[in-house]
Amino acid sequence: MLHLVKHSPYSRQALAQCLDYAQPNSTIVLLSDAVVAGVAGSEWANRLFTETHAVYLLSDDVIARGLGDKLHPSAELIDMRQLVDLSADHVTQMTW
User: Fold this and answer.
1) Which pLDDT band holds residue 72 (cuts at 50, 70, 90)?
2) Closest Cα to residue 26, out of 57, 56, 51, 54?
3) What is the pLDDT averaged over residues 16-22?
4) CB-based contacts of 81, cutoff 8 Å, min separation 6
5) Where is the signal peptide (predicted)?
6) Alpha-carbon span 73 to 87, nearest angstrom
């Protein structure tokens, strides 16, 4: 399943709910304000990058927020084309 998380984990519970719901081997994409969860050393990055999920961050949103050099070493950036490809590859999707 593909999970698209759009809201900052510091303002809403979307990411927490996603992580509680997501099955192992799910794919999680952080976009919009949710990319702040990928900042190295944050409680969210520690939780995200030790789980059994594939986690991606939309590069345009990371750049727009000036977070490029602050991300967890395991953070993998994708562009919009790759996001479309992930969407096409996953029959089931959920937006948080």
Assistant:
1) very high
2) 54
3) 95
4) none
5) none
6) 24
Tokens 């399943």: give the residue: 1
pLDDT digits (tens, 9 = 90+) for 26-71: 999 999 999 999 999 999 998 999 878 999 999 999 999 999 999 9
H or E, element range at 44: helix 43-48
What contacts 96, CB < 8 A, 6 or more positions away? 3, 4, 5, 6, 7, 14, 15, 17, 18
13-17's contacts with Cβ under 8 Å and 24+ in sequence apart are 14/96, 15/44, 15/96, 17/96
